[in-house]
Amino acid sequence: MSTALEDIFQRVLTARVFKDREKLRPDYVPEELPHREYEIKRLGETLAPAIKGVRPSNVFIYGLPGTGKTAVAKYVLKKLSKAAARLDLGSGLANCYINCKYDNTSYRVFASLCEQLGVKVPFTGLSIPELFRRFMKALESSSRLVIIVLDEIDVLAGHSSSDLLYRLTRINSELSKSRVALVGVTNDLKFTESLDPRVKSALGEEELVFKPYDSDELEDILRQRAKLAFMEGALEEGVIPLCATLAAREHGDARRALDLLRVAGEVAERGGGFKVTEAHVRKAQKELERDRVVEVLRSMPLHGKLTLMAVYLLERKGVKEKTTGEIYSLYKEVCKMLRLDELTQRRVSDLINELDVAGLVTARVVSRGRRGLTKIVKLNINEEILREGLREDDRLSALLQ
Q1: Domain ranges of the chain
Q2: CB of 130 within 8 A of CB of 185?
Q3: Does 37-210 carry CATH code 3.40.190.10?
Q4: What is the mean pLDDT of each run of 10 residues along the chain (401 residues)?
Q5: CATH of 213-297, one of 2.60.120.10, 3.40.50.150, 3.40.50.11810, 1.10.8.60
Q6: Buried b (16+ CB within 10 A) or exposed e, 107-123
Q7: Cα–Cα distance between 392 and 30 in angstroms, integer?
């Protein structure tokens, strides 16, 4: 094993593929953002009053994943801060960035905001009112205009922390020396429908919608990043067009295109190669598909996992045509075994439809003649991926033994 590892290390050391692979990471914000000039201009116009210390309107940014929402928000705020510094106004302007996917509770959001304003707070232990009080004190002591970006803000709406949005949209009425402006970013175009009308009107003073990239636009983005990330001559001619085409099929996701190009480079590097080929892109696509399926499995609600487990167990028993009724019967057995309350058959049928949309199963309706219509379900993933996706839950992984 030691010799095998040394061979792997040596291949990576001798490979001449990457110049700086970090330039392909989604959190890297380049000096130029191709095909987002209009969105940059619109957001810049909205936030520009901050240079004079005037609180700009709150902004809500919508768009599918990988359409440049976060990059544009960070880009504009970076330029705004530089402009304020040139005018010697930098001390009166501050930016705070929160990724609500990770800071997904009121406590974590307020704790992160306090930290970014230079106030240390314990990881746990304070009440939300006390934490909010400390955040307010930090704001007032700074006497600044603070622009807060809440990325993936829709995550907060599904938690008890949804009142956080109400607090933040009403915070200026409680401040005397400072001001707060909010930039909300979401992939969910219907997110605001679930908001309190008072929060919705305050949060969405201005709205900006990002359209998906097309194949040509993705190719431009990849060529820009490739110059920064790869050694000269490291990419075969057809690699970038292939990555762009594959990503364009998935709603023009630039993040997906960049991941595909980076992983293709890593596949070539692991082989000790000097050039990334289309074959490396195809292999990278398979690796990313696998990783995405595993992530979907891990993030699924418990009863969605139980429904999928019932489909798998029927398949393992050799049942070729698995109907909704058979799946529900086995689902109830699994719930009983794990001492869990079961859902209704109608709800489990809805979960099967959700699994179908996610691509984990295929559900098709067939005619049984006089017996009417029935839904036949087929599993689309193998046992290895299922095990990896469910291994964090000991109860479910035990059923796979």
Answers
A1: 37-210, 213-297, 300-399
A2: no
A3: no
A4: 71 78 90 94 94 90 91 94 80 88 86 91 86 91 90 73 79 90 86 74 82 94 94 92 89 89 91 88 87 79 88 86 88 89 87 83 75 79 80 75 66
A5: 1.10.8.60
A6: bbbbbbbbebbebebee
A7: 36
Fold topology of 300-399: Arc Repressor Mutant, subunit A (1.10.10)
Work out the number of other CB atoms within 10 angstroms of the CB of residue 53: 13
Q: Which residues pair with 151 in a beta bridge?
A: 99, 185
